[in-house]
Amino acid sequence: MDYQAVLEEVAAYARPLVRRGRVADYIPALERVSADRFGIAVADIHGAVHGVGDWEVPFSVQSISKAFSLALVMAQSPGSQGEDGIWKRVGREPSGTPFNSLVQLEAENGIPRNPFINAGALVVTDRLQTLTGDASTSMLDFLREESGNPDLAFDPAVAESEAGHGDRNAALAHFMASFGNLENPVPSVIEHYFWQCAIEMSCRDLAVAGGFLARHGLRADGSRLLEAREAKRINAVMLTCGTYDAAGEFAYRVGLPAKSGVGGGIIAVIPGRCTLCVWSPGLDARGNSVAGAAALDHFTTLTGWSVF
Amino acid sequence: MDYQAVLEEVAAYARPLVRRGRVADYIPALERVSADRFGIAVADIHGAVHGVGDWEVPFSVQSISKAFSLALVMAQSPGSQGEDGIWKRVGREPSGTPFNSLVQLEAENGIPRNPFINAGALVVTDRLQTLTGDASTSMLDFLREESGNPDLAFDPAVAESEAGHGDRNAALAHFMASFGNLENPVPSVIEHYFWQCAIEMSCRDLAVAGGFLARHGLRADGSRLLEAREAKRINAVMLTCGTYDAAGEFAYRVGLPAKSGVGGGIIAVIPGRCTLCVWSPGLDARGNSVAGAAALDHFTTLTGWSVF
Amino acid sequence: MDYQAVLEEVAAYARPLVRRGRVADYIPALERVSADRFGIAVADIHGAVHGVGDWEVPFSVQSISKAFSLALVMAQSPGSQGEDGIWKRVGREPSGTPFNSLVQLEAENGIPRNPFINAGALVVTDRLQTLTGDASTSMLDFLREESGNPDLAFDPAVAESEAGHGDRNAALAHFMASFGNLENPVPSVIEHYFWQCAIEMSCRDLAVAGGFLARHGLRADGSRLLEAREAKRINAVMLTCGTYDAAGEFAYRVGLPAKSGVGGGIIAVIPGRCTLCVWSPGLDARGNSVAGAAALDHFTTLTGWSVF
Amino acid sequence: MDYQAVLEEVAAYARPLVRRGRVADYIPALERVSADRFGIAVADIHGAVHGVGDWEVPFSVQSISKAFSLALVMAQSPGSQGEDGIWKRVGREPSGTPFNSLVQLEAENGIPRNPFINAGALVVTDRLQTLTGDASTSMLDFLREESGNPDLAFDPAVAESEAGHGDRNAALAHFMASFGNLENPVPSVIEHYFWQCAIEMSCRDLAVAGGFLARHGLRADGSRLLEAREAKRINAVMLTCGTYDAAGEFAYRVGLPAKSGVGGGIIAVIPGRCTLCVWSPGLDARGNSVAGAAALDHFTTLTGWSVF
């Protein structure tokens, strides 16, 4: 596969869609990002990396961090016990309603539907906090090491900006706490969650750091982060729940496990082959990058690769 | 009307139901109250007061305070403007769902259904805080004056106990704040709300203090607290929304405007005649005093008084 | 009370609002009614009747029939047994959601929230069908007798028109049948329900026929239709549930038990005094007559009569 | 791959779970099936078929038919136009709520969430009825031809039994009709839907007939039923929506596109390799075969095959 040529063609296809959609504007730090950006990178399972466009420009990972926090919780709790621990507190079903919804949380006694809605990610962060003592720094450390980029950093402006607009997440966290589903104090869980979302990474960084999902759990250095079974299961959750309440549509069009963020990034996995990351800040009504989703769709059309 | 005789008969009717139901146990300070208690008092519009049983024993007013905070907000903002101010931020419709529900709040953009569900009372408290600078002390001052009992006080154990179990109310408040429906900081609103609920009053105190609802807005000293129209409207909200999601059933059986609290108290109004307060801690599944509701039901049967 | 003068003043107040709102247009037979109509009638408990405007023009009673079907079911099943029979199958709580909602029906196992939402009225009609063998003719017979107008009739165009647009009511009925909450075949229940709604009556007819609600259960001829307790209870259900999901607002503004219909009519009761009926076809967003509600509001302002 | 050996091992693993769960009992014709049954078959893409246990015993396909009706609608409307036609009337998102729910249907204007909940399948059947003139016979004809078994037949007892308990489906259909989302009369759509569900097939028949899903759209005879893209998309919908509201859990555990039925059957697809069908009547709380799901789980463990 001539990845470089494919990426060029994908970029040519997607570029007319750049600026479509709407840049996330609920916090000033995100709103300032130029809508013109477009980058895509692919990291194959052997370590080769290719990219086009703004593929080396850092952006705010936002909810893409949720895939990594889930992986780290699984990695920190080896064996099925670790899995059991987290899955008693968060479900694995698509949410069927917008990603911040409190309705299901109420109907289901404070157990969020899945780890990729905000409520679920707060529970995962809470667990990671208990396991590591620092849910945001431990994630940053992992991402630096796995991406091979020691310069990865938090964007404090984004983290503080989120905190200043965090009433909805505070509501979710207090609500789950009222059901006894948080181990750590609400303010600490929320803070680490915001700092995780405020990590800045490029398409290159994310494609490389997410390589273990394509390598059935093996890290870049060949050591094992997750059992093959666990890596497959994260992919399954990404496919069914990774793109907010558009997961069914995304599976239908793209057919790949993926996790998107409101920073405009999307990572996607072709198990046994490669990990992709695409970035363009314009979002559709459901919070997924318009040009990014189109690029992944075209990538699967050109390569014929799909999990189906 | 020989009130004393009627109250004796009512008490005889209701006493077998005392200990039915379940004493509120979500906070230790309430749980410690004896389930055996039963008291009832009536204050007629001319100032005469009668009572039987534990009618002079103070108990935690809890949600009964919601009727007074609504009245005080109305009284503090004379004219229809005052009314308009609060009714833009809280509705007047029965909730149709359990009293802590977040569902409607989400569907209706952070506007609570009515001022007597917790979310609505938080908005009213927030408004009272803005109007008076101290939403709990101003209420206590009013209740002391209106009841003629200068010894009324907060129960700090209850207030602190609520705060220690306040995640659900914190969730509601943060959630409304995320929609821009709070004027004051969340922690301050919650704290004043808890202190309002933690006021201790007897049946006597409450029946006397609520006299203005039967006197079409006139205070005990003859001065006007509310316009007649406003007093009638509070009664209307009490009838349609005052007894959690059992308001329809309560109107059907009892036929009087009423406001209940999980401390086991219920105040009820017979416009133009008298205000009643009954207390017995055992609650039904919807949070209303079992013996208290039966007592009010029997009172209307004996007297033939009902708004219908 | 000089009713005629009051009605003139009420009409003068409400007329500028005539043509406000929107005439029901979901069936052609209703859509054809002129938006200019306005009439109001009052029947006092002694049999005197007054009216102004189009108070003698027949219109489609629509949901106002629900108050009469509930009364007839109660009347047909004397004693508390009769009450028990119907209240096991339908609740007494305000719906809190739009009047056709299937949501609560699903959550609450096919038991409608109250007898005045469509689902609840279908259950009441089903019961009346079982009790009388003909739920629509028995209602027409009663209304003819009670109004003293032997010319009352169904409007076949309306009944057939409803049937042609009846998928939503068919859905409700089949859904309740799936929970075992209908005694008669779905098509027969729906048909009788549509014919009840299609009865044509004037303000005069309705105010007179509804007199038993103001007379604590006594019919025009002095015989007893309902126990006083039962009549009060129907008034309570009207106040808490009678004006679709605007019952709280209606109680707040008007303060009277009332039942509205999408034909633009509203009956209201002042217990112990009189029964009113107002008609103007323009509806607000919740299905209640705009000029009709304003007229009742002004009537209570002028007379000072309110249940509160 | 020695399929026969794998199937033997899978059967040994799953057999202890046979009789777990609960045989569907909402219609007598299903309730009579022995809970002891267990069979599994695999049809590879080259036409080889293997099976163990009761793999040649016919059972009621029930909701498995939904995968075939979707495929037939797509096949009958070549090009993207065909797709567009059906996807305007039914969504592709997981339902997030129990499979018969009316809630979402109400919130989303009569557009069912996906083609595999009952409401969605009624829409697909309605479309197939329009396209073929006979939505049930055309499906039977296709299944006979594709399975190579001309003896496939409807079970009239099941179809009639469904019709006798069909109030909930009638409610769904009338409700969608009220939104204008049905082309054919409600009774005809429901009837064809019931007959589709009442087709009897064995594991062998279903694995062979579903071969086109593993062959990227090619039929057994090599002719094209669907574009590769369309076959992949049906697999995507099966993975995200195919096992009622347990689709996330199923993807997590099994990692294969699958469609289950309350008759106890499940078909699953390994794209590019084979189609599986397993049958055991005991169902879990969500309506999926207990032993069947465990068998598929173990099959993927033994073979290492998963789409992730």
From TrEMBL, chains A, B, C, D:
One of its GO terms (molecular function) is glutaminase activity. Homotetramer. Substrate binds at S63, N118, E162, N169, Y193, Y244, V262. Belongs to the glutaminase family. Keywords: Acetylation, Hydrolase. Its EC number is 3.5.1.2. It holds the Pfam family Glutaminase. SUPFAM superfamilies: beta-lactamase/transpeptidase-like. InterPro entries: Beta-lactam/transpept-like (IPR012338), Glutaminase (IPR015868). It comes from the Bacteria. This is Glutaminase. It catalyses: L-glutamine + H2O = L-glutamate + NH4(+). It is an enzyme of class 3 (hydrolase). One of its GO terms (biological process) is glutamate biosynthetic process.
